[in-house]
Amino acid sequence: MPELPDVEGFRQILLDGAVGGRVSRVEVLDAGVLRGVEAGTFRREVAGRVLGSPTRHGKWLVVPLHSRGRRHQRDDPSIVFHFGMTGGLAMSDDRPPQRYDRIVFIMAGGLLRYHDMRKLQGVRLLQCDRDVAALLDDLGPDAAAVTAQEFADRLAGRRGRLKPVLMNQRVVAGLGNLLVDEVLWRARLHPARPVAELTGAERSRLLRAMRSVVRQSIKHARVPALPSWLTGHRGREGQPCPRCGTPLQRSRIGGRGTYWCPHCQPP
Ligand SMILES: [Zn+2]
After folding, report:
1. Per-residue pLDDT at 249
2. Mean predicted confidence (pLDDT) in 218-229
3. How far is CA 131 from CA 17, 72, 105, 121, 124, in A?
4. How far apart are CA 267 and CA 144, in angstroms?
């Protein structure tokens, strides 16, 4: 499932191969990924425009559009991607459409493909920057940029357990199932600990672990399944904790399959 580092990777793909390029044509292979816009409108509005420099907030990716020869203005449209569970972007030259390609942007520099097997989220076309801001208004600060003060403010007064609170995009934006488990393991905090119970020292440890895990994951454009990471040992209960060797535990917490080390992360 695309989390912050994966979406940052898609942003990098755009920066490397698509930004500054003019879209000559758009093929909507499956309109089921479009949200709030019809295929004909999407094709018409995007064709002929230039892709501006993309920004990411949490798991959302915003690509401002502009006309050739002028910068993006506040009342120009933007394409907004949310990749759901299975979405992604890829640049390629000429390979034929793949099974889950849903939208293809035909550009001078190659083909930009949005693929998505399950179509849980998708692609929006918003008419101006104010509409983009309104769409993203509910999100907490981005997990890659949140300050210590913002983090403390967001956790203050929260009832609930660590795992679901950190998964909540209104608290911090960008963390998903893998990142949260990795961060909690790194911070040695049990995923079911009540947030209200955290000490100041534990909160600092949590923030440090989050920054480190997010920063390293961005380099891999995903949460890497390294042998020294918890993520490298998911998938089967009873695999040894890469830090202490204790068999890992698995359970559903906040509705999601959760891994932790019972020795490093006591309740
Ligand atoms: Zn351990």
Report:
1. 96
2. 97
3. 27, 15, 23, 18, 11
4. 27
CA of 261 to the centre of ligand 1 (A): 5
- Please provide residue 145's backbone torsions phi and psi, each rounded to the nearest 5 degrees: -130, 0
Catalytic position from the list 11, 59, 124, 163: 59
Phi, psi of 157 (to 5 degrees): 75, 0
In whole angstroms, what is the distance from residue 21 CA to residue 51 CA?
Answer: 6
Catalytic (active site) residue 224: no
The per-residue pLDDT for range 111-140, each reduced to its tens digit, is: 999 999 999 999 999 999 999 999 999 999
CA–centroid distance, 258 to ligand 1, in Å, is: 15
Candidates 202, 250, 256, 262; catalytic one: 256
| Residue type, position 201, single letter | A
Nearest to 188 by CA among 122, 130, 103, 246: 246
For residue 240, the surrounding DSSP H or E stretch is none
Active site residue 59: yes
**Per-residue pLDDT tens over the stretch 10-28:** 999 999 999 999 999 999 9
* CA–CA dist 42, 63 (Å, integer): 14
Rounded alpha-carbon distances, angstroms, from residue 114 to 76, 147, 188, 257, 263: 22, 32, 37, 28, 42
264 C-alpha vs ligand 1 centroid, how far in Å? 4
Is 2 a residue of the active site? yes
| C-alpha 184 – ligand 1 centre gap (Å) | 12
How far does the centroid of ligand 1 lie from the alpha carbon of residue 229, in Å?
Answer: 11
Active site residue 119: no
CA dist 96 and 69 (Å) reads 32
CA-based end-to-end distance of the chain: 27
How many A from CA of 256 to the centre of ligand 1? Answer: 21
CA of 224: how far to CAs of 21, 105, 173, 198, 245, in Å?
Answer: 31, 29, 19, 28, 20
